Amino acid sequence: MANINPPDGGGSDAEHLNVRHRVARPPKEGLAKDIKSGIEEMFFHDAPLRDFKDQTASKKALLGIQAVFPIIGWAREYNLKKLRGDLISGLTIASLCIPQDIGYAKLANLDPKYGLYSSFVPPLVYAGMGSSRDIAIGPVAVVSLLIGTLCRAVIDPVDSPAEYLRLVFTATFFAGIFEAGLGFLRLGFLIDFLSHAAVVGFMGGAAITIALQQLKGFLGIKKFTKKTDVVSVMHSVFKAAHHGWNWQTILIGASFLTFILVAKFIGKKNRKLFWVPAIAPLISVIVSTFFVFITRADKQGVQIVKHIDQGINPISIGKIYFSGKYLTEGVRIGGIAGMVALTEAVAIGRTFAAMKDYQIDGNKEMIALGTMNVVGSFTSCYITTGSFSRSAVNYMAGCQTAVSNIVMAVVVALTLEFITPLFKYTPNAILAAIIISAVLGLIDIDAAVLIWKIDKLDFVACMGAFFGVIFISVEIGLLISVVISFAKILLQVTRPRTTILGKVPRTNVYRNTLQYPEALKIPGIMIIRVDSAIYFSNSNYIRERALRWLREEDEEAKAADMPAIKFVIIEMSPVTDIDTSGIHSLEELHKSLEKNQIRLILANPGPVVTEKLHVSKFAEEIGDENIFLSVGDAVAFCSPKLAEQQA
Amino acid sequence: MANINPPDGGGSDAEHLNVRHRVARPPKEGLAKDIKSGIEEMFFHDAPLRDFKDQTASKKALLGIQAVFPIIGWAREYNLKKLRGDLISGLTIASLCIPQDIGYAKLANLDPKYGLYSSFVPPLVYAGMGSSRDIAIGPVAVVSLLIGTLCRAVIDPVDSPAEYLRLVFTATFFAGIFEAGLGFLRLGFLIDFLSHAAVVGFMGGAAITIALQQLKGFLGIKKFTKKTDVVSVMHSVFKAAHHGWNWQTILIGASFLTFILVAKFIGKKNRKLFWVPAIAPLISVIVSTFFVFITRADKQGVQIVKHIDQGINPISIGKIYFSGKYLTEGVRIGGIAGMVALTEAVAIGRTFAAMKDYQIDGNKEMIALGTMNVVGSFTSCYITTGSFSRSAVNYMAGCQTAVSNIVMAVVVALTLEFITPLFKYTPNAILAAIIISAVLGLIDIDAAVLIWKIDKLDFVACMGAFFGVIFISVEIGLLISVVISFAKILLQVTRPRTTILGKVPRTNVYRNTLQYPEALKIPGIMIIRVDSAIYFSNSNYIRERALRWLREEDEEAKAADMPAIKFVIIEMSPVTDIDTSGIHSLEELHKSLEKNQIRLILANPGPVVTEKLHVSKFAEEIGDENIFLSVGDAVAFCSPKLAEQQA
């Protein structure tokens, strides 16, 4: 409850009128309530049903439908001004996505048309169900590479293209089921277990791997390794150096890559010219296609796209493997690719939501992304997610709502219906150049530098994932990221920090003596702060560390001719919880100290810990009078006793 | 550094003389030092080499040998008084272990002699290398059952006893390698990942499973299931009820079980009579053997031990599989059984060390346990560890050093050499009764009740392991324990507590308003404490939770007609570390608050966090003047501003 008393001003710590405050036991809560609040915090910490409270049944039903289809909510407030922004941004991302889609489909070992299909249906589904206003949906480079690599390991796409395609649809279906399932079961927090550092490393490594793969198209090499590691790829490239490289191809690719990169540079320098890098790829495609068509450079060995089927997505529901040996493979690949796709989409959603200050419900978002992939797998799409590069363009082009995705989808559909034959003479080198320029944006050197500065261990995780992807394979890189992320969590819980506190002069504040060298230790008293919940995973460490601190401080005191330590005060503020192992450790610590005539004192245990200290009878064991509200109180209690003992 | 100024007495918080204390950045440490201290805390937190400092080379060598063989250290101080204690306790545990060994060997599907072998060599090795003074080494029930179950799944012990035996030795060898390896690589902390609650549940379940298995011997059933789950066992028991039960067997078993349990009860009531329950099993064996020998009850269907080979351990080094298909199985089984054995031994070691207040070096202890199993596997022993029941008897009988293990080993060796033929007529029912009474002690109902009181989630883990063992199998129960233990760790790091603080009246102390209902919130200011390091696994949760607190507090303020919140103070004391994801989250929180004209203020960030806030430029972003030494300082700063705004 708030109150109106003004807080004491002027930074004074006064008014502690010799009143001894007891450490309160919180009001007792029932077991059911206890469990309920635990589950709520775990799965429903965002209180998803708060809007449903105190509403009529019909209103509740409407809110329910709106929860699944946010479009119903915002469509009513839609206006021409918003449409203008969405139209411009939709057209911009459409011009960017068409050439990217064709290239990304190749990364997944699919015909170019599947890339375009995937930019038609999924964005429409997302527009109806998603809650991000800025994300641009479609195939992305890393997930395309991942699904391409994983599926090729099972079925050869050249020998059995039909089966390969079916496997891709199966994986897409299960990726969708997996994503939607996580959201539905409110397990969205699981993706937080992939650390930022590992993701940065993985993305960077994947970007370089993808760029290297493009050397095939860029240099016009015909025989190329199927492996993705840098050693195999460079070997392929240099083996083909003498007669496998096609200079015409290189010339075309290099000129347009330069053009695209210059356009990117212009866009970076002047944010108003954001459309320059956005349409540069499409212009490159048009110009180069026209150029090849006139010069018939394809007869000189310049490889071209050749043929893209006309017409929008055919139904593919019958192609999904719901039984047989490829079912489990599909589930496995779908799970991995779905997780990566989810990580990317959620990261994008959060970033832009924070920039424009609106909320995204992670679990709802996952249901939308999952549904979009399930529907996609029924309509000849492969796995899609939010694209970093296109979402950024979408944002800069001034998109207002998910309508920009609808605009993009319509443009892609029109392209499929009418324009695809014109892509016949598009040189592969241009697609390679477009992909290279796109994935370069995934290499986030600034982030890696920041990680290095902030946390060396994080940097190791980042580099582990990076080199894992580059030198071994995408899956191994991903595995390394996951393992390192988990190892970091385990490290965090087994070795919590403990610090020795001292009194900051002229205050009653006790602080880390390493951080505040002016903070003074009090002779005969050791104040130690444990900076973590005390659980089975760290309870032994904490006990042993406390005894080691005691030994060290005692030696120091002896060397400085100070009285030996007679009181150990444990500052428990940061100890949010304790389990049976933790209580055992405290008991053992208490016994060890007692044997040496040292008194154990606890300062400021929190509500949960206080309750458990009492339930376990440990509070009785050390005596209620040895538990204090604050370190200051505890020291005030010990000091006269110390003086007595020394007298 | 300690200083001699007396601390301010009388519980007053005075003297904070309007000095604004800046939050200090800790002295910069080099990267190498940073990494070094991280590694030290992880692997060498017990400073194992501190005794080696400043010593001469020869002294160092001696200390090194002594570190591996602690016996060299304490043997010099050994005296007759200690010998007396060790002799009594050694004889007591020998009398207890001989009948137990014979029974436990059967749990492992081995001949009784292997149980006795295992109580001869390993205790001798441990006596030389171990650092616990109270642990009693030998085969134990749970590990015997575990290795029996796991090995039988690979090789049938009845069809191919020789191969089965070889597999057991192989598993023992690798269990030893595994244990010693963990200790040698200083990875001993890994066993802390098995939570106390899970161990209690697992042990209780295993005890009941073992007791149920004894119904075969106890009821004299000949055809018995090989499964260990309660349903299969009870089915076997009742199917045999009509003509498979042997009343003579039941009579003998029941009488002696009653005798042993009464003896146990007497020992519990009067601690001086600790030897009564300790020798009751041996007496039962002697009396019942004599009884069967006279009455020739074995001709009435009472099953007897029949024959135990005479002589001490033969060499078995040649029987270990170092190649072939059973090698990997041996490694796997050894790994699992080794982990369980280690958990038991370390728990025992720690318990008694705390009772007598001496230190045990967990890593060294593991090397000793591992070596003892490796040597054991060379000398026809199966996997051994510390026994709960025998260690307790050892302790109560007044053991002083590991010499009691040597005494026990000698007695066992003499038994093997001279007495084994006398066991011929020992009825199996007696062994069953002894095992039942021994494993009953593993069912720790008090611990389960305490776990229930302290932590409901821990109790779920405990019951999960318990019912997993009883209704499915030992391995599944173990798996459940491990999974739940890890899930709890993950839960702990993803959903840290956040609390709203208020001012405790007449102090300048800010505390959890739920724990201290008298603590007052300050109008216009929300003070929130984050009780955990901010890492990738929880950074999003913390940001969202903070925004939710803000929403809730604002609604409450509005309802109470209070001013809206203009300052959010985050109390950072418990935030021991932050990573890049955490900094991102703070940035996003800062942006969200800024959009609503709310000022973000940090109070008392620790050394590591302060450093990282500066390195990442976040400190600049929110402004150095918004970081305070304490919540009190921060509130004192905000209050006048609030008054201004409202004026």
Automatic annotation (TrEMBL), chains A, B:
The keyword Transport applies. It is found in: Membrane. It is a multi-pass membrane protein. The chain crosses the membrane at residues 135-155, 167-185, 197-215, 245-266, 273-294, 333-355, 367-389, 395-416, 428-452, 464-487. InterPro entries: S04_transporter_CS, SLC26A/SulP_dom, SLC26A/SulP_fam, STAS_dom, STAS_dom_sf. GO terms for molecular function: secondary active sulfate transmembrane transporter activity; symporter activity. The keyword Membrane applies. This is Sulfate transporter 1.1. It comes from Noccaea caerulescens.
